[in-house]
Amino acid sequence: MSKNSPNSPLPILLLLIVVMFAACKHRKAVPTAPVPVVQAPVDSLGKCKMPTRNGRTLTRLMKENELKFKWLGAKAEVFSVIDGKEESFDIRVAIRKDSAMLITIQYVLGVQVAKILITRDSVKFVDYIHRTYFKGDFVYLSELLNADIDFDVAQAVLFGNSADFSEDDAKLNPTTDRENCKYLLSTARKRKLRRIQQGGEIKDALQTLTLSPDNFKILRNVFVEPTNNRSFTADYSNFATKDSVFAPWHVDIDISAEKKATVKIDYVRIEKDVPQKLSLNIPGKYEQVQIRKK
User: Fold this and answer.
1) Phi/psi at 200 (nearest 5 deg)?
2) Domains of the chain, with CATH numbers?
3) Is residue 213 over pLDDT 90?
């Protein structure tokens, strides 16, 4: 037996997958992340002395300096504010690169709230609080949200990597921001699901990456969809090496869509190349959720 649940947490994939799944009411202190100091390359007069680089070179340097892994496991504390409602919870993330990702959401004391298993062609979700589950795919969710969503974006955005550009995204526009001493790399990402737009002019989603001039790590990732007036901004900070993993240990996310949301992610552990368990069992008595457009 299935039921329709328009208020189900599934559409939160647009809100970075993990933001709205938790129904937890528990509050806990949220650590304040210090703003990292980036040593910008300046001359004796304090002027930026970054060399100009073309889009191909910036893309290569960015990819060379990304967090590389075959397996990735992480634990994080998450604090979110969605339309004024505050939530605090913990997440555990397990990824087999380019294959599957399992996100476990739980209370601070370890009580599981939900699990999400994402593969390249499917999305499965179990809500242990409401004893419900969902099975679907990215095509369905993209049609539901009128937005392009795929596994690559979900995998990349959590840890400050870039989703691969498609062959259609050939025009990569580099900018040397000498005022702030950073590189910018922008492109119009082609909409792959043209049929989700019912009539009218189709506008490409715009993406802009802000890169550090010293290590070419992504400091900011901005997606803007002009067609439906949605934007997503992720800021990465607290770059450090812990247990041989150099990564941003703090992520600030700001989302402007039908719901306004801000999310703060503080990683407490990140380990790479250790095989992870990627499984999600749906209890037999749980009810299936059918999510429909409003």
Assistant:
1) 75, 175
2) 6-28+54-289 (2.50.20.10)
3) yes
Which residue in 39, 15, 1 sits closest to 255, CA to CA? 15
Residues 217, 214: Cα–Cα separation, whole Å: 8
**3-class state of residue 61 by DSSP:** helix
Does 246 score more than 60 pLDDT?
Answer: yes
3-state secondary structure of 279: coil
Contact between residue 176 and residue 185 where contact means Cβ atoms under 8 Å apart: no
- CB burial of residue 281 (10 Å; 0-12, 13-18, 19+): exposed
Please check whether residue 289 is in contact with residue 9, taking contact to mean a CB–CB distance below 8 angstroms: no
Least confident window among 1-5, 108-112, 150-154: 1-5
What is the spatial distance between Cα 20 and Cα 170, in angstroms, rounded to a whole number? Answer: 34
Rounded Cα distance between 95 and 39, Å, is 32
Strand pairing class (132-136; 287-290): parallel
